[in-house]
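Minutes, project check-in
Item: structure for the 248-residue chain
Input as provided by the requester:
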Amino acid sequence: MAMNEADVRNRWSSGSACHGLWSLLPGVVTADVLARTGSDFVVVDLQHGAVSEAELPGITAAIAAAGAVPLVRTRSPLFADVGRPLDLGACGVIVPNVRDAEHAREVVAATRYAPAGVRSIGRLTGGAAQPLVIAMVETATALEDLDAVLAVEGLDGVYVGPGDLSLSLGLHGADRRAELRSVLSSIIARATASGVPVGVHAYDGEEAAGYAAEGATIVTVAVDTVSLGEVMARHLEVGRSRAGADGR
């Protein structure tokens, strides 16, 4: 069944999970393949991915046509970077580097037309008048102000970036992994208690399922570049081992 941003918002608001995929690779074909897996949403990553803004109309249209909701991680939390993907077909944004609650309010305002916000009229294609807006918690300041962030009106959820958060908290490295995992669990618990949808960035289904078991409902189960590399390496390993066994 095709999903739209209202369906996702309603499911998150009811405490139900939505499962999606994260894309760093460019191209409409990539987007179409990911969306046709049955994912509820596909996140196109403009911050660290290879996709350009010029590709967004075709990519977001392909995702929507396949029945999933096109979301975009913006390049930055700047006003223009939040608004551009929404004008080019995104039905929601995941905004990185949000500092605190006041910053989160500015981000929400950038996604809403007046009088509710300051978004400029100029949508070119697709998208939504009331897009999903998710603030990333990946800095020490955002974590310190988490209760206030969770209370920001109009915010559809928070999404934790474990990598940057670990750096910001000084918890980077294998020897600090247990401490970081405790922090992640605490964020999930606090958001869930506040009735705010929450997700934690994951690279595989098992990791994502662990977060979902604790209450996360914004569930990204795989990243295309990581999964592609793992699958291709596994096929190569199988092919080479059997070729050796056959003496060829």
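Outcome recorded: The domain at 5-245 is CATH 3.20.20.60 (TIM Barrel).
No further action items on this chain.
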